[in-house]
Structures are given as C-alpha cells and as structure tokens.
Amino acid sequence: MIPRKVTLATCAVGFAIAVAAAAPADFPRRSVTVVVPFPAGGSADAVPRIVGAKLAARWGHAVIVENRPGAAGTTGSTTVANAAPDGHTLLASPAGPLVINRFVQKAFSFDPLQLTAITVMAGVPTVLAIRSSLPAKSVNELIAYGKQQKGGLNYGSQGPGSTSHLSAVLFQNLTGVAMVHVPYKGSAPALADLVGGNIDLMFDNLGSALPLHRAGQIRILGVGTATRSPLLPDTPTIEEQGLSGYRSSTWFALVAPPRTDTAIADKVAADVADILKMDDVRERLTSLGLEPIGNGRARTAEIIASESKQWEAVVQAAKLPKE
Question: Where are the alpha helices (H) located in 23-161, listed in sequence order?
Fold first, then answer.
C-alpha cells in the first residue's frame, strides 16, 4: 500500500530535467481525453478534474474528463487499454481497476501491468464508516454488534474487487464478523445508501466520506493507515483499536495505453507534478482529504506492481471466487 507521506520534492527528482530534454515538442496535438472508470461525484472523479483543468491551461488544448463506469471500473479501464498509444487517451483510476480486478473478475481482458504508468496524483486513507443510526461508537463496539446480528452486517462498496470491497474482506478475515456484500457502481451511490440507512457500513476513502461525517450523516469509526489523519486527529486508526496488521489506503493514478511513448508519459508526469505544487491545487485536494503526490513513471509502476501482490494475497486468503 502506498506510503502515507510522499513529498513532492522527492517525487519530482530524477525525471523533471530528463523530461524537459526528451518530451515530444508537439504533444499534445489535440484534445486529451481522461477516462474515469467510475461515476461523477467521488474522489476518483474530482482529482482528474482538478488536475485536468490546469493541464488544459498549460497545454492549450482541452482536457476532457469522461466518466465510463461499469464492472467496478473495468469497463472504462479496458477502453483505455485498447486505445491508441499516442497519449491522447489516458486513464485516471484508483487502485481497483489497476491492481485488484484481474484477481476477482472472470471477464477481465488485459494486463494492468502492461499499461504505461505516468504518475500517482493523490493518495488518501481508507476509513470505516457506518450509518448514523447504528449504535457502535468504536471498531470494537461494531465488531461486538456485528457478532450479535443473526444475518450479520451488510456493507456497500464501489463494486466487486474495488479497494472498498477488499478492505471489508480484510476486516472480515481479521474479525470473523459475518458480512454481506452490496456492490454499487462507485462511491457516490453507495454513500447515498449509507446515509439513507440502507446499508450498515462501508470502507471508503476519507475524501468522499469526510463531508458526510462532519455533517453527522454517517460516522467514521477508524482510519486504515498506520497513523491518524490530521483531518481526523481524534479518530484512532483501525489498528490502534486492536486489528493488528490492518492497512488500507487508496490512490489515484494516471496511466496510458500499453506501448505509449515513455517520453510522453514523462512529460505528462512532470506537468502534473508542477501542477500539484500550486497552492490552489494543494488547497483543493487537501480540503477533500487528499494528499497531493506526483511521483513519476518509475515509482508509479512500482506501486502498481507491489499493490497487485498485496491485494492478490487478500483475495487468495479469503478464497474469493472470480465473478
């Protein structure tokens, strides 16, 4: 899982100077489409829209964010995997379509490790949120409550194989609480049902859940990272509350089709890194509970490969069938 703190200075070192010399002078030649494989409304959609607006101003060409939800992000990510490798079609995605879906979906048709990594734009902790009417005030109280329920608890997710899904599976493996999965097409509709009391809980990223928590519409019980979030300093981590080894965070990466010119990927990564240093961009992302990153092609490829192994182990331990 991605480290919680990554400094932009560290992220940018090693590729910015090389990119300036090697980047294609005529890129982009026209508008660039950034496919988001989830519905509008969540952090997966907000991050590329914030960054994309700045890229459009820098490039002098439109950056079109296109939502193509379906199959827990596989519909949109497959579109990009099969697109022309010229840099004009990119994928902005959280971890699910890039490191998890191939282990849980029968119809998955491409190798995410063959996509051309560009950069991780931002990262955010996973949080455990419950409906406001549920009586638990801590993770331990939720576990006790769940074990008393005959039918167990029902939890929402962004879709089968998403980070939110496997975060719940990991929780279930560690606690033994019986839980029923209710998949949705993205964070927004799942959170809407959590607010409405139609599901008991959800593991989601802090950026999406925080406004609802602050409004009292849902309640965040714990944070999935190793340390507490500065945005929720009084909310303990899930591990602090007794679940040793529980770690879950998410990140929002920008990737291109396989065989995209690495010079193009490096140029986009360098431009994004510059944008993430802008005060107004950092302020907007931070207000959403997100940490700006901007780490470049090599590090992004390492993260995708590493997290593929980690979440594959969770899938295998839970013996999840492919659906």
Answer: 43-59, 74-81, 95, 101-104, 139-148
